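Let's sit down with a protein and look at its sequence and fold side by side. Once you have written the record down, we can walk along the chain together.
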Amino acid sequence: QAQLVESGGGLVQAGGSLRLSCAASGRTLSSYARGWFRQAPGKEREFVAAISYIGGTTYYADSVKGRFTISRDNAENKVYLQMNSLNPEDTAVYYCAATKARIAWTVATTYEYWGQGTQVTVSS
């Protein structure tokens, strides 16, 4: 079993930046694809970004493309989400996840492991 722990969330003004981190323990996730999802109050969990197990392929939701960057450090068993040009619509709880699947990385049910989430609040 793997445990995922997110960090780096907080309160930021519109236009600002945050960098989320997700640390894994319990097993090495270098062969797992990693993803970030978010859930705003009253809304369903939605895909944000994903990265292949090697790190050469990335996917982004249209709403964050060009503003967010996902990256990973397999040596540290971590994945990151750099978020720039934040706006109030980015306010949500952000979750990191991991999957051994090689497809459907934009789908939440693909992922076997999830963190507890970290709150990101963007003020206008």
